[in-house]
Amino acid sequence: QRFPGQKSADRQRTVGRPPLLHSTFRICHRDSPAYCGTMTTVFVDLMSQPSRACTLFCRAAGLPVDIEQVRLDKKQQKTPEYLAINPFGKVPALRDGEFTLPESASILRYLAVKFNVADHWYPREPKARATVESAMDWSSTTLRSGAARLGWHRVVGKRMGAPTSEDGAKEALGLLKLALHQLETIWLARSPFVAGSGISIADLQIVCELEQL
User: Which strands make up the sheet holding 24-26, listed edge to edge?
Assistant: First the structure.
């Protein structure tokens, strides 16, 4: 089992790993110039939109990190081993040596700064960076509140046997329509990407919410 587009030469680390991590995917090859023996690991489940944003950024920017899968359907995010990494019991999470970090937006920012990525991902100029961060905040508070809740009431919650309702779905749809209108008329009104002419981590965060629909 591999991520889409992953070559057969990509390594899997399974020996000596905690039992909650049933499979591991290395983004960078050991013989790749990008590989630096990093201890940085991002824990994800690709069913999660925020997890996909972090994974997509790591791959698109060629970051030398490990991606480890945490199965939400098997409740691996609630095991003691994983709660020691992210006490909130959610994905994604990051571990860099002894340092751990929850929340996808914070993880995206941390990776961008740590690996000194190309400026378009997370601009150094204060106003441009503030625009990216503003778009990320908007995505988390406005777009996600509609998109994720709609997906929960219509699909995910039902598959998991959790409480759902058509009223909840209708309310989420209203929030989503408002967010999509704002995306078109505000964030994308003057440029092809939300923060200017180049793709940023905010765009990845937003597109992973939209592709779920």
Answer: 24-26, 66-69, 40-44, 93-96, 99-102
